[in-house]
Amino acid sequence: MLRTLLRLVFALFVLAALLVVGLVVWVNSTYQRDFSATPLPDIHASQDPAVIAQGQYLVEAVAHCSECHRPAYYVRKRQPSADPTDLRGGYAFRAGPFGTFYAANLSSDAQTGIGAWSDGQLARVIRHGVDRNGHFAVFMALSIGALSDQDLTAVISYLRTLPPTKNAVPGDRWGFAAKVLAHFYKPHDEPRLQHVPPGGLSVERGRYLANGPAGCYTCHSARNPFHGFAIEGPRFAGNPQPEPDEADAKFELVAPNLSSDPVGRTGQWSEDKFVARFKMGVTLRGTHMPWESFQRMREDDLRSIYRYLRSVPKVSNDLGPSRRLAGWKR
Ligand code: HEC
Ligand code: HEC
């Protein structure tokens, strides 16, 4: 009797162990899904100097590509790069159990940069988060807002002017958590926004920037990891999920509510205070908010963003202080 019971327990144990091993093997062999059927957008680089200049403004300020793709040393130091045209990449984003992701080399070098890739391949990773091999590009998928065709063209036109810099960047190293969650991912296709050209001060321009190239909502909204990290709930209501303060692990940061509710930043701040905060640049060394780039935004664009944020429905979502001791509870 006892022996039968022991045999049963042992058999169950072996079965459970096999299941776990099987699951791990399955996740490891299937996480890298094939999204190569995602069409390459019909976008072509232009040599028009005005388009290139608009692209530079997007890359270095609004769309904050340079925040992540400048040389690793400057990303680490949260300092402006000595040469803003040097986007050799290489910075390692260490995301704990999700893995380590390396910012690509955006220079025109044919071997280590983007020199050999087509305009369509570049446009696809920026718009859909699908890389040149048809794979899910985690950071690109989750941190870039929808760009209009005009602005996507401008960004790629500017990238084509960058001088070649040799810098071989390692491939991403996916952690187990990311491999599991990759199964819930679908390449995103944000509704294309109506392009609102620069130069005017308006709620419409602010709406386009905050939901488009500046991507404010990508961090300032809640996300559901089991829906491919899709935004859940109202945009700009803040992200309750804290992140470690990269400068001091004893602290954590949350991206606050930006609505005009009394607990939201545009409810608490005047337009001038909002602009002044952006002009100050980085104050917390361990933050992910791309202050370095946003500091370069034109004043009319900042004012447009403020006016738009004032116009989004108020949400009284009080997330507490943006920086607090890790594990903070109300
Ligand atoms: C938050 C950081 C971040 C921002 C902002 C960012 N990138 Fe990236 N980018 C990455 C990382 C990390 C990778 C490596 C793949 C991945 O994890 O997405 C990458 C990969 C790429 C690639 C290579 C894709 C491939 O096929 O291998 C291109 C091209 C690119 N980024 C262009 C841009 C452009 C243009 C912008 C601005 C519109 C931008 N990135 C903004 C972090 C960023
Ligand atoms: C990559 C993530 C990310 C993006 C993109 C982002 N933010 Fe933030 N933001 C944060 C985090 C994290 C904080 C809290 C830490 C800090 O203040 O730096 C923050 C803080 C803020 C604050 C409060 C600053 C203070 O001093 O209290 C404002 C205002 C703000 N963001 C507005 C914006 C606007 C407007 C945009 C788009 C133009 C934007 N953010 C884009 C992550 C982000």
Portion in strands: 5-15%
Radius of gyration: 22 Å
Ligands bound here? Answer: heme C
Number of domains: 2
Q: What key attributes describe this structure?
A:
330 residues, mainly alpha, 2 domains, 3-stranded antiparallel beta sheet, 8 strands, 7% strand, globular, binds heme C
Task: Furnish the topology, listing elements before pairings.
Elements: H1 2-30, H2 49-62, H3 65-69, H4 72-77, E1 92-94, E2 99-102, H5 119-128, H6 138-143, H7 149-159, E3 173-174, H8 176-181, H9 203-211, H10 216-219, E4 222-224, E5 230-232, E6 243-244, E7 251-253, H11 265-268, H12 271-280, H13 291-294, H14 299-311, E8 323-325
Antiparallel strand pairs: 1-2, 2-3, 4-5, 6-7, 7-8
Give a short overview.
Helices cover 40% and strands 7% of the residues. By secondary structure, the chain is mainly alpha-helical. It folds into two domains: 33-189, no CATH class; 193-330, no CATH class.
Question: How would you describe the overall organization of this protein?
Answer:
It is a single chain. By secondary structure, this protein is mainly alpha-helical. It has 14 helices and 8 strands. The chain has helices spanning 2-30, 49-62, 65-69, 72-77, 119-128, 138-143, 149-159, 176-181, 203-211, 216-219, 265-268, 271-280, 291-294, 299-311, and strands at 92-94, 99-102, 173-174, 222-224, 230-232, 243-244, 251-253, 323-325. The protein has a 3-stranded antiparallel β-sheet. Strands 6-7-8 form a 3-stranded antiparallel β-sheet, with no helix packed on it. A hairpin with a 4-residue loop joins strand 1 and strand 2 (99-102). The radius of gyration is 22 Å and the shape is globular. It starts with a helix and ends in a 5-residue tail after the last strand.
